[in-house]
Amino acid sequence: MKKSGIMKRLTGMLLAAGIMLTMAGPQAMASPADKVHQERAARIAKATNTEEVKTISWKARLKTAVKVKTVATDGFPSEEVALKQGKKITVIQRDYHEKRGVSECKLKDGRTCYIANQFLLFYKALATGAQGDYDQATKEAFVNGVNGVDGISALAGTDKLIWISLDKQRVNIFQGRRGSWKLIRECVCSTGAPDSPTFDQTFKKVFKVQKKSPSVSYGEVTGLKYYTFIYGYGMHLWTGPGRKQMGKKPLSHSCVRLKKKDAVWIYDDENIPVGTRIYVW
After folding, report:
1. pLDDT-based confidence at 279, cuts 50/70/90?
2. Are 55 and 103 in contact (CB under 8 A)?
3. 119: left (phi > 0), else alpha (psi -120 to 50), else beta?
4. Would you say domain 26-126 falls under CATH 3.90.180.10?
5. How far apart are CA 24 and CA 17, in angstroms?
6. What values do phi and psi take at 161, rounded to 5?
7. Topology match between the domains 26-126 and 129-280
8. Which of 125, 162, 258, 262 has a CA 20 to 30 Å removed from the CA of 73?
9. What is the spatial distance between Cα 196 and Cα 217, in angstroms, rounded to a whole number?
């Protein structure tokens, strides 16, 4: 057999194996963490009569044809569905593990299913910051929970909390303690683009301010000033293209881009000490 024929056969075998993997039980492989966070947000909104906070959604295309099982709901029974290569879907809970992650997807008819990230090409972020932000009552209810239950805790030695809202493209800063956080500052921002997303809370249970630097360079990108390190990325001043999209559209290479007044304020240790908890969702 010619080399080209062998490669085609091997490619076909690998593709078939990948499809079988998706059919074999992707729901069992999917991380439940995002769903836990969404259920928490729904409980808080209902109990406090505030808006339900959501994380960011994404548009994706299928790199290849796959067969999946839809999730059974009151309106739809579970069934096997064949999805064609190139089909557009909405990812409502993204697993950030590129090779082994499985994301929750919504089909055009409203049904949901789980698809391995290896079959998905993420191409658009569905942030809603351009349509407005949550009000103060919603933000404080979301981080405080109900009577302290489900509230977000600070890390030892700090009285600050930062919540980066991926959907609204906002950095929200609170002061206080679990169950009694008060919103003290709101900053428009731009988080990670579809191919370089900002990791959300499901990737790591506890993000925090690790350290700070007056200027940081990454590869060809130089002079990122007022840099506050988080887990795997940071918050910093951005003066390049896309500044007018802050608060509206994710455009960064994973970092959180800020306006100067906000980057400087966060960089000041008296405002945000090292060790401050970061909640990303």
Report:
1. very high
2. no
3. alpha
4. no
5. 10
6. -145, 135
7. no
8. 125
9. 17
Q: How many CB atoms lie within 10 A of CB 58?
A: 22
The predicted-structure confidence for 132-186, as pLDDT tens digits, reads as follows: 999 999 999 999 999 889 999 998 889 999 999 999 999 999 999 999 999 999 9
User: For residue range 1-20, what is the model confidence (pLDDT) as tens digits?
Assistant: 454 554 555 444 444 444 44
- Among residues 278, 264, 231, 248, the alpha carbon closest in space to that of 188 is found at 248
The structural domains of the chain, with segments of one domain joined by +, span: 26-126, 129-280
Tokens for 61, please give them.
Answer: 């295309």
pLDDT digits (tens, 9 = 90+) for 181-237: 999 999 999 999 999 999 887 666 688 999 999 999 877 677 899 999 998 889 999
Lowest mean pLDDT among 20-24, 51-55, 78-82, 220-224: 20-24
Joined tokens for residue 211: 């350290």
Token representation of residue 254: 């994973």
pTM of the model: 0.86
Closest CA to 184 of 197, 171, 169, 174: 174
Q: Mapping DSSP to helix (H, G, I), strand (E, B) and coil, where does residue 130 land?
A: helix
E strand map for 22-159: 57-62, 66-69, 80-83, 88-93, 102-106, 112-116, 120-126
Task: Please report how many Cα atoms fall inside a 13 Å half-sphere around the Cα of residue 244, on the Cβ side.
Answer: 0
Q: Where are the alpha helices (DSSP H) in the chain?
A: 3-24, 26-29, 33-48, 136-144, 260-267
Q: b or e along 84-112 (b: 16 or more beta carbons within 10 Å of the residue's beta carbon)? A: eeeeebbbbbbbbeeeebbbbbbbeeebb
Residue 116: partners with Cβ closer than 8 Å, 6 or more residues away: 18, 21, 22, 26, 29, 100, 101, 102
At 24, the pLDDT band (50, 70, 90 cuts) reads very low
